[in-house]
Design a protein that fits this description.
There is one protein chain. By secondary structure, this protein is an alpha/beta fold. The chain folds into four domains: 2-120 and 134-189, no CATH class; 224-560, 3-Layer(aba) Sandwich (Rossmann fold), CATH 3.40.50; 587-842, Rossmann fold; 863-988, Rossmann fold, CATH 3.40.50.11610. The chain is built from 33 helices and 26 strands. It is globular.
């Protein structure tokens, strides 16, 4: 019946809408909307014969009229299509057919503009390029009179009035319009300085909402006061860049010239969002325009910005700092348009374009979480992008992919693409395969608003609509700000080398401020004097700030913090305490956590038999006051939750655990979606525990969790790689944010990376977490034995850039996680976690190892027979991680417990110089050996060797035992793997192997 009702609606203005129809023509799939009209009527007629109620009342009247006017029995013999072909002489010949075809044609025409009108919108301010990279005009858009023929219409139909469908708002209060007016209004709505992409959205209400915002006649109106505000903001944006250009003409600043409208655009979005209840906005952006955003959106003091250009400026804080156009800012102020408090945060980020996107989303999610903002009504994010990066950087897709996931959604982000129509020197026609740089946003049904940046009012309107969309639907939205770059990639670059035609036009292009001010003066909104006074006023502000910036300013990077923790540090930014850390636990706490961890806290919950066996196994361990790796993790998380510390564990399959050891989320085997998280049933007033399987992403998800960890120091945020090797694809976040974050931006961060690691014959992609990379970026000096006046461990941790550990016992794993929170500062923690040790019978800890007064062991000494007579020990093997258990087993097999001591480095970086020296002196007569299961050019060897030599003051060598150098991290052949293991085990316990041999 849908086809019959559709035609009835066409002819009589019925309100029926088929929400499932997605064909671009508006017709049923496989049919022409016009040519198929006769067959529709034929089908409708047969339906009417069955039951008159099957069709709309208008068609019922139509068929009754023909039946009543025809000789008895004649109508039943006539094919219904003949009714539209004039074969029934009692009805006007051809009239019905013409009415149906013309109305269908007009409705199809309207739909064509809604779908493809943006392709012919006037988007390029320069007038030389097509934003969609294609100058072809779609054949179904009426750009010339002769194209009316596409719809079987002609010039004579232009004055004919047509009933408008309910899927358009171009009529305003009118239900019918002449064809020429329909076309004019469609051109105005869809083909001017705004191009709207939204018809791919599969939600009728959302499509109707957008149509109403852009089709309603006269809806894009601004008051004179709003226009004056827009002009004032445009003056600030433009004159700020002009001032920098005058004062520092030879400095890189990545100015905003050519897209000065970005500043009023952002302020409009913030104003509109503030009015809707938002009081915190977190932003991320590339370097272009950052200083202008800091000055005129975040409202950072201008003298603080200007002093950054002083080449003699000396830093007052620790760390290396960063260039000014990478720095961020956090500022609380009153929004003048709404008189409401608002917090604005611009995240610091490197030149790795778009890398900041998931970080912003993570921080936004964290703030929403801690404030109980479950719908994103108080906290939101805005991301500014470049066109080439938006299309080219894969992390953009990864970030969009997180936008609708329950544990990652920020309930809508406004994306602003500063579309320079060029990427550095690369023409967009060879930089992307998609028509628009924004096409990636279509994967999440985000509406895309293309707008000509030289039309400030069009830009402001689009920004209003974007803010309203986000507030209404809590979904992402994209603004494609089509502009140009007045200078090169930076102010020192020469763009004429590669884009001569574009830059000849840019040289002739009138500045948008001049065009808009002239327009408002012509309209009588402002006078020339008003305009000049506003310009002079802001120029004076800049000059005064410039003078102030020279008054003995020094570089305080802390003034540029984007995530301050005011209650965590002292006013000077120092830790409130530097005392030692006890990470032990009360016995009753251990027992209580163990009980919950080995049971199901919900009655009547049906669990899998395999999970039942795991829980029984835990219970058996608890009876003997022992714990395995999973239970040690439970102890750490549970005890922190008791103390009010939020714990969040994220990554691929972390709920169960890649190796089926964790099972933090239990699934009822009989009821779908019924789950139980025992960790959230530990204590009545505990902090929440969040464990969430992520999308199949490392780059995006690690960036997200890093951002989440920035929001509060009182949370343990962990990201677990499915296998440690998979951190490869998150290397940008590790290299650019985690390792140097404090040095560049004075940003403490306690993110924890759990990286399963171990050479177990699983091949080159499932063995190594690449510890050599993390150790290479550790900043402790291999040639200097550190001296500290206070607690060596805490002081050394305070000086490092991150902590790298490879725990070999569940208790030590628990301790290091607890230490991460109990330290008076925050450092990233890299943990190489085990695989086979998860169930290794020797990898067990006693509850006594977690008792009160116990702490994390940076080094675990030998506690066997060798330690009882150290002077007689011939060799000391230092190692880390899983290989200890293989060494211990081989030593026992060869009965060398008294001759060889095995010592475990649990904390590799910062290197435990003090403890290693103590052990080396204890076994003063023994050879020193470093043994690792990784290949010699990988793993820990290159890191530990020079530090061992520093410990022993180069008085004796440190020998290497392990696999030979290789290109791949592991072999894919099990037999080869076992032969390699046997070979280096034989070497490790051959007491004659190193005598007289200088490695």
């Amino acid at each position: 019946m849908s086809q019959f009702r559709a035609l009835a609606a066409v002819l009589r203005g019925g309100r029926w809408v088929d929400p499932g129809r997605s064909c671009s023509s508006g017709a049923a799939p496989g049919h022409s909307a016009v040519a198929g009209s006769s067959s529709y009527v034929e089908e409708m007629y047969f339906a009417w014969l069955e039951d008159h109620k099957n069709v709309h009342e208008s068609w019922d009247a139509f068929f009754r009229n023909i039946q009543d006017s025809s000789p008895s029995g004649e109508v039943g013999e006539i094919r219904p299509s003949a009714l539209l072909q004039g074969r029934v002489q009692s009805h006007s010949p051809g009239m019905a057919q013409k009415v149906v075809e013309d109305h269908l044609a007009v409705h199809t025409l309207i739909r064509a503009y809604q779908i493809r009108g943006h392709h012919v919108a006037q988007l390029d301010p320069l007038g030389i390029l097509d934003a969609d990279l294609d100058s072809f005009v779609p054949s179904d858009l009426i750009t010339t009179i002769d194209k009316l023929g596409f719809y079987n219409l002609d010039e004579s139909d232009l004055d004919m009035s047509f009933q408008l469908p309910p899927t358009t708002f171009i009529g305003g209060a009118d239900n019918t319009l002449p064809l020429k007016e329909i076309i004019r209004r469609l051109e105005t709505s869809y083909c001017g300085h705004i191009g709207v992409e939204y018809m791919f959205i599969n939600n009728v209400d959302q499509c109707q909402w957008i149509r109403q915002k852009f089709e309603t006649p006269g809806i894009m109106q601004f008051t004179d006061a709003e226009k004056r505000t827009l002009l004032a903001r445009l003056i600030r944006s433009t004159r700020f860049e002009d001032f920098l250009a005058r004062k520092w003409s030879s400095e890189k600043r990545f100015g905003l010239e050519g897209c000065e409208v970005l500043i009023p655009a952002l302020k409009t979005m913030i104003d509109k969002s503030s009015a809707a209840g938002i009081d915190s906005v977190i932003m991320g952006m590339p370097h272009r325009g950052r200083l202008n955003v800091l000055a005129n959106v975040i409202r950072k003091d201008l003298d603080q910005i200007f002093c950054q250009f002083d080449p003699k400026l000396e830093p007052a804080d620790e760390g290396s700092g960063d260039v000014k156009y990478h720095l961020g800012m956090y500022h609380e102020r009153i929004n003048r348009e709404t008189d409401k408090n608002i917090t604005l945060s611009l995240m610091a980020n490197p030149s790795h374009l778009e890398a900041v996107d998931p970080v912003v989303q993570g921080k936004t999610k964290a703030e929403q979480f801690y404030r109980g903002d479950t719908q994103g009504k108080k906290v939101m994010s805005i991301l500014i992008h470049g066109d080439a990066a938006f299309a080219g950087q894969g992390v953009v897709y990864e970030t969009f992919h997180l936008s609708e996931l329950p544990s990652y959604t920020t309930h809508g982000t406004i994306h602003v693409v500063v579309n320079n129509q060029i990427g550095f020197t690369t023409d967009p026609r060879v930089a992307r395969s998609s028509p628009y740089p924004t096409d990636v946003a279509r994967v999440v049904n985000a509406p895309i608003f293309h707008v000509n940046a030289d039309d400030p009012e069009a830009v402001m309107y689009v920004c209003r609509v974007a803010a309203e969309w986000r507030a209404t639907f809590n979904k992402d939205v994209v603004i494609d700000l089509v502009c140009y770059r007045r200078f090169g990639h930076n102010e020192m670059d020469e763009p004429m080398f590669t884009q001569p035609l574009m830059y000849k036009q840019i040289c002739r292009q009138e500045q948008v401020l001049k065009k808009y001010s002239n327009r408002l003066i012509a309209e009588g909104v402002v006078t020339l004097q008003d305009f000049e006074e506003e310009v002079s006023k802001y120029d004076k502000i800049c000059e005064e700030a410039y003078t102030s910036s020279k008054d003995g300013k020094i570089l305080h990077i802390r003034h540029w913090l984007d995530s301050p923790w005011p209650d965590f540090f002292t006013a000077e930014g120092e830790p409130k305490s530097m005392s030692g850390v006890s990470t032990g636990l009360h016995e009753e706490v251990l027992q209580h956590i163990s009980q919950i961890a080995s049971s199901v806290p919900l009655e009547g919950f049906h669990i899998h038999p395999g999970v039942s066996r795991i829980l029984r196994g835990r219970a058996d361990l608890v009876k003997n006051r022992q714990m395995d790796w999973a239970l040690g993790e439970y102890m750490a998380f549970g005890s922190l939750l008791k103390d009010g510390i939020h714990v969040r564990l994220s990554g691929q399959d972390v709920e169960r655990g890649t190796f089926s050891h964790r099972h933090h989320v239990l699934h009822d085997q009989e009821l779908d979606k019924l789950i139980c998280v025992p960790m959230n049933h530990l204590w009545a007033d505990q902090a929440p525990y969040t464990v969430c399987n992520s999308s199949l992403s490392e780059y995006g998800v690690l960036g997200f969790e890093l951002g989440f960890a920035m929001a509060s120091p009182n949370a343990l945020i962990l990201w677990e790689a499915q296998f440690g090797d998979f951190n490869n694809t998150a290397q940008c976040i590790i290299d650019q944010f985690i390792s140097p974050g404090q040095a560049k931006w004075v940003r403490n961060n306690g993110i924890v990376l759990l990286l399963p690691h171990g050479m177990e014959g699983m091949g080159p992609e499932h063995s190594s977490a690449r510890p050599e990379r993390f150790l290479q970026m550790s900043k402790d000096d291999p040639d200097h034995f550190p001296e500290f006046s206070g607690d060596f461990e805490v002081q050394q941790l305070y000086e490092c850039n991150w902590i790298v550990v490879n725990c070999s016992t569940p208790a030590n794993y628990c301790h290091v996680l607890r230490r991460q929170i109990l330290l008076p500062f925050r450092k990233p923690l890299i943990i190489f976690t085990p695989k086979s040790l998860l169930r290794h019978p020797d990898a067990r800890s006693s509850f006594d190892d977690l008792a009160e007064g116990t702490t994390f062991k940076r080094l675990i000494p030998d506690e066997g027979p060798a330690s009882q007579n150290p002077a007689q020990v011939k060799r000391v093997i230092f190692c880390t991680g899983k290989v200890y258990y293989e060494l211990a087993r081989e030593r026992k097999r060869q009965k060398l417990e008294r001759d060889i001591a095995i010592i475990r480095l649990e904390q590799i970086s910062p290197f435990p110089f003090d403890l290693v020296r103590a052990e080396a002196e204890r076994y003063g007569n023994a050879e020193l050996v470093w043994c690792q299961e990784e290949h010699k050019n990988m793993g820990y060897c290159d890191y530990v060797r020079p530090r061992f030599l520093t410990v022993v003051a180069n008085q004796k060598p440190i020998w290497y035992v392990g696999r030979d150098p290789a290109a791949a991290p592991a072999t894919g052949n099990k037999s080869t793997h076992l032969n390699e293991l046997k070979r280096f085990m034989d070497t490790a316990f051959n007491l004659n192997a190193f005598q007289g041999k200088d490695l």
